[in-house]
């Protein structure tokens, strides 16, 4: 898969690596939403090469779906950038 710096990839099925990135920011997600995530399963993602990597990640929760935006630095640390709530399985992962 060829990547162009600054361009978002197509939506892809998530794997254990993406679940790991989402898990790294789970506490921040729970804090921002003020909810404990008993279900937190990554479904799909998109990525964008910057000075590091941006990820848009679709997550199944106990009451539906959320989209999160995460930045992973070149050193590997993950930072939650934003969250969109009240999403469905069919909602596309559009940059936000």
TrEMBL record:
The protein's GO terms of the molecular function aspect are: cysteine-type endopeptidase inhibitor activity
Q: Which GO terms describe its cellular component?
A: cytosol
Q: What is its main location?
A: cytoplasm
Pfam families recorded for this chain? Cystatin
Q: Which CDD domains match?
A: CY
> The organism sits in which domain of life?
Eukaryota
Q: Which organism is it from?
A: Dictyostelium purpureum
* Keyword Hydrolase belongs to the record: no
Task: State the family named in the UniProt similarity comment for this chain.
Answer: Belongs to the cystatin family.
Q: Which UniProt keywords apply?
A: Cytoplasm, Protease inhibitor, Thiol protease inhibitor
Q: Where in the cell is it found?
A: Cytoplasm
Q: What is this protein called?
A: Cystatin domain-containing protein
Cross-referenced Gene3D superfamilies, in alphabetical order? Answer: 3.10.450.10
Cystatin domain: which residues?
Answer: 10-77
């Amino acid at each position: 898969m060829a990547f162009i710096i600054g361009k978002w990839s197509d939506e892809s099925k998530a794997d254990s690596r993406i679940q790991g990135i989402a898990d790294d920011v789970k506490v921040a997600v729970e804090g921002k939403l003020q909810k404990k995530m008993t279900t937190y399963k990554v479904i799909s993602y998109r990525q964008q090469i910057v000075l590091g990597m941006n990820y848009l990640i679709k997550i199944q929760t106990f009451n539906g779906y959320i989209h999160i935006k995460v930045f992973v630095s070149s050193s590997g640390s993950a930072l939650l950038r934003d969250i969109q709530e009240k999403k469905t399985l069919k909602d596309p992962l559009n940059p936000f």
